[in-house]
Design goal:
The structure is a single chain. The chain is mainly alpha-helical. It has one domain: Orthogonal Bundle (ADP-ribosylglycohydrolase fold). Helices cover about 60% and strands about 0% of the residues. It is globular, with a radius of gyration of 17 Å. The protein starts with 13 loop residues before the first helix and ends in a 5-residue tail after the last helix.
Length: about 300
């Protein structure tokens, strides 16, 4: 069972931050999924301000049920556990197993990439201009934890897992930037350090500029990054961050998951509202807690 630590941010340990990132990711997914593809106006008509895990939506989810975002993230973590480290072939088999499990949802680019692997065994998708979605970015958290303290390994492993389904420079840049931000926050570093990483991404790829915020919330990775950055840097708590992002609609499950990952890494698992934590599917919570301990041990960061 997840124990919620007491104390302020200064007393948050690494495990609490990693749990915060992982649970925050799943909470954002489950909170946002029922309003995926809705507009802000439609959400207001249906819910006022969405504050709780209500279930439903186009996928007819149970309250607290996660989607492909969390499932693919956990599949990647399970592959790392089985291999005792990073092995793309093992990861591919875990993605294939998830694909065969008939998940509640799967993005088109992920579907094509896994189908290609099933067809010819290749571990890298060819470049495609249409593959600048957020599907590779959303599942990368296990690698961010596994490689704590090794930036070169993080970059190399991240690009390998991204290119299994998404081979596009915008997807690559987003996955690396969000991963580096998460790793910085897991280390207890300041928001200014995280902001410097975001600003560095914008400097290298002006498309990601989020000031002023363009107010686009689609699954295009540029829209995702702009939405997540805008909300994360303009909110004052985990709850505020999540409520802002999911009530914008669009790709609300992925945007919510990534915002929850960053806010959870910053604030720790104790900052996640208990009403959301307790509503999250118990098997998912249990899998996350076990996976966090495995990844920290493999990273040599067990406390």
């Amino acid at each position: 069972m997840i124990m919620l630590p007491a104390g302020g941010a200064g007393g948050i340990g690494l495990r609490e931050r990693v749990l915060g990132a992982y649970i925050g990711f799943a909470v954002g997914d489950a909170l946002g999924a029922p309003v995926e593809f809705l507009t802000e106006q439609e959400i207001r008509m249906l819910h006022g301000t969405l504050c709780d895990m209500v279930g439903g939506g186009w996928l007819r989810l149970r309250p607290g049920q996660v989607t492909d975002d969390t499932q693919m993230c956990l599949a990647l973590g399970d592959a790392i556990e089985q291999a005792g480290g990073w092995n793309l072939s093992v990861a591919a088999e875990h993605f294939l197993g998830w694909y065969r499990s008939k998940p509640v949802d799967i993005g088109n680019t992920c579907r094509r990439g896994i189908a290609r692997y099933l067809r010819d065994g290749s571990l890298e998708s060819p470049f495609s201009e249409g593959d600048a979605g957020n599907g590779a970015v959303m599942r990368n958290l296990p690698l961010a934890v596994l490689t704590l303290g090794d930036d070169e390994a993080f970059a190399r492993f991240t690009l390998e897992q991204c290119h299994f389904t998404h081979n596009h420079p915008l997807s690559d840049a987003a996955a690396l930037a969000l991963g580096h931000m998460t790793r910085t926050l897991l280390g207890g570093h300041s928001m200014s350090r995280a902001r410097a990483i975001a600003d560095g991404l914008v400097s290298e790829q002006r498309l990601f500029n989020f000031e002023p915020y363009p107010k686009m919330c689609t699954g295009y990775v540029v829209d995702t990054v702009q939405t997540v950055f805008h909300v994360f840097f303009n909110s004052d708590s985990f709850e505020d961050c999540l409520l802002q992002v999911v009530n914008r609609g669009g790709d609300a499950d992925t945007n919510g998951a990534l915002a929850g990952m960053l806010a959870g890494a910053r604030d720790g698992v104790g900052a996640i509202p208990r009403r959301w934590l307790m509503k999250l599917e118990r098997p998912v919570r249990d899998a996350i807690e076990r996976q966090v301990d495995v990844l920290l041990e493999l990273a040599g960061k067990s406390e």
